[in-house]
Amino acid sequence: MDASGCTVSPLDSSTWPAYEAAVREAGGMPAGCWCMAFHPEGTAMAGRGADAELNCARRRAKVEAGTTRAALVLDGERCVGWCQYGTPDELPRIKNRGAYEKAVEKLPDWRIGCCYVTKPSRRHGVSEIALRGAIDLIARAGGGVVEGYPEPADQVPAGFLFHGSLGTFERLGFTRTRQIGKHRWVVTRQVDPAPPAAGAP
């Protein structure tokens, strides 16, 4: 796969079909989650039955309402990966939450949720494209302090790096703040607001 030709688009009604196809191909990604585990309405590790379809329906409803966010990486019309992001109110259920909350001083403006690359597209730089896309979308939304919760790729199998690779975050300017799990780190970066589009008032 040549990821250099990939494009990034926000998850919305027009890109939902590509996202849905990728998640279904991955069997719910993983265990019927549909990227809902970090949302308050999500059923974590739902399996592939009714709860998985409930997560799918809830995610689609949130997409239609504009209350869930992700940067999708598209290879043509095919979705090959994404990076979920949102405010702490939108994504309160992070991994290692208890350890995180013991030492939190101030919540960030934005959180990076799950980072996922479809199995055939891994190790081609798709994850970095997705994270960069999320950062760009955050900049367009006004920027601010962005927090992620990645793990080192040399200590966690690629199929379980649901919060992304520590090295990918660091390459894009994130700094380690503290460790909250056996391998999990809190990393932060300040993202400046994007300049107004040409012709904007």
UniProtKB/TrEMBL annotation:
Keywords, comma-separated and alphabetical: Transferase
Could you tell me one molecular function GO term of this UniProt entry? transferase activity
Q: Kindly provide the name given to this protein in its UniProt entry.
A: GCN5 family acetyltransferase
Q: Which organism is it from?
A: Brachybacterium phenoliresistens
